[in-house]
Design a protein that fits this description.
This protein has helices spanning 44-52, 91-101, 106-119, 135-147, 165-180, 193-199, 232-250; strands spanning 2-13, 16-28, 33-37, 59-64, 67-68, 76-79, 153-157, 185-189, 202-206, 214-219. α2 (91-101) crosses α3, α2 packs parallel to α4 (135-147) and α6 (193-199) packs across α7. It is built from 7 helices and 10 strands. Its EC number is 3.6.3.36.
């Protein structure tokens, strides 16, 4: 269980206090794929940073499996829109870096890298440098680097937003496959309603208020297959979220 319990979060700017969260609660069960969606500036990234242990709440607690998150944890992976690859390292070296930092034994590391390269369709690009890759390929390398570390929690902040529509769809399929393999909890921030409905088994819609609150939560029971995009359920759920966001924007 992952818990944001009674959390208040203030930012300071020019001697002014901005309260982004006020006694905010969110509970995420192991193995869920939660999506956070809401208007720009409502606090989605702030919630991810709290879960990542990169930000401490002003009041309240953030806990994973009952333990307070006091800082970044080994088993949490964080994927950002910018891929965070080192331009002077090739694909293989970029992926190996995470394992190197953790001092994993070389034979085990080699095996892991080979498996992930194959799974992510990157084997043929292993000697390419980031500048020689497309945006979608770069994001796959970034994902591969994180997955070699076997995270139990994967946090993603608009990871696909700079990709073209088809590449984005392919990577959404890949993220769905990764989640379906199990043993991982994912929390995704996105502005795309379709992406939220395709990838979230629970969609948290945040209000356009400061501090924000949960406007609604949608249990998206039909998700889990690539064909979900073409179903009536999918369209119904996207419309439901669109209506919530539009209604929230007017308030
Ligand atoms: N370091 C900071 N100092 C001051 N204010 C901040 C800081 N980081 C974020 N904020 C403010 O806190 C609010 C929430 O920011 P946050 O980035 O969490 O929103 P968001 O929902 O992720 O936005 P977007 O969808 O535009 O990425 C915004 O009003 C933002 O301006």
């Amino acid at each position: 269980m992952i818990e944001i319990a009674d959390c208040t979060l203030d930012y300071q700017q020019d001697k002014k206090r901005i309260r982004v969260l006020d006694q905010f609660d969110l509970r995420i069960n192991r193995g869920e794929s939660v999506v956070l969606i809401g208007p720009s500036g409502c606090g989605k990234s702030t919630l991810l940073y709290l879960l990542a242990g990169l930000l401490r709440p002003t009041a309240g607690r953030v806990m994973i499996e009952g333990a307070d998150v006091a800082g970044p944890r080994r088993q949490t992976g964080f994927i950002l829109q910018e891929y965070g690859l080192f331009p002077w390292l090739n694909v293989e070296e970029n992926i190996r870096l995470g394992l190197k930092i953790r001092h994993e034994a070389l034979p085990a590391a080699r095996e892991t890298i080979e498996r992930i390269l194959a799974e992510m369709g990157l084997a043929q690009y292993r000697k390419h440098y980031p500048s020689q890759l497309s945006g979608g390929q770069r994001q796959r390398v970034a994902l591969a680097r994180i997955l070699t570390l076997r995270p139990d929690l994967l946090l993603m902040d608009e990871p696909l937003s700079s990709l073209d529509a088809l590449t984005r769809e392919r990577l959404q399929n890949l993220l769905l496959d990764i989640w379906k393999k199990g043993d991982i909890t994912t929390v995704l921030v996105t502005h795309s309603i379709e992406e939220a409905v395709f990838l979230g088994n629970r969609i948290i819609v945040l209000a356009n208020k400061q501090p924000t609150f949960i406007l609604n939560e949608i249990a998206n029971l039909g998700m889990g297959s690539r064909t979900y995009r073409n179903t009536e359920d999918f369209f119904k759920t996207t419309n439901q979220i669109r209506a919530l966001l539009e209604g929230g924007a007017e308030s």
